[in-house]
Design a protein that fits this description.
The protein has 96 residues and is of the alpha+beta class. It has two helices and five strands. The chain has a single domain, classed as Gyrase A, domain 2 (2-Layer Sandwich), CATH 3.30.1360. 33% of the residues lie in helices and 34% in strands. Strands 1, 2, 3, 4 and 5 form a five-stranded antiparallel beta sheet that branches. A hairpin with a 2-residue loop joins β2 and β3. The radius of gyration is 16 Å and the shape is elongated. The termini are far apart.
């Protein structure tokens, strides 16, 4: 019974998480949204995940990340207001 309860809670918490990955908005404008499944991790890890994913996306294209806009939820992280970060960015050529 404990095993079943643990799995049920885990599935429920993971179902509330959001991770869109890189989503193209136009030819060189992209967005990423990440949301934690609870309020416990805080916003810093969520923001770091968004930034790292955007950086890797541009680096894989041998380009430089340019952040166009970003937003995040504000505490308190309760009642469905879980840590969430969104970023809109582009990848620019690296000038030599």
């Amino acid at each position: 019974m404990r095993y079943f309860l643990a799995i049920t809670i885990s599935v429920f918490l993971n179902a509330c998480a959001i991770d869109t990955g890189v989503v193209p908005l136009s030819s060189n404008t992209f967005t990423i949204t990440k949301q934690a499944s609870t309020g416990f991790p805080g916003i810093d890890g969520v923001k770091e995940g968004v930034l790292q994913e955007a950086y890797k996306y541009c680096a894989n294209a041998h380009k430089r990340l340019k952040i166009l806009s970003s937003s995040e939820t504000k505490p308190p992280y309760i009642f469905g207001n879980f840590p969430k970060a969104e970023m809109t960015f582009s990848c620019e050529s690296i000038s030599e």
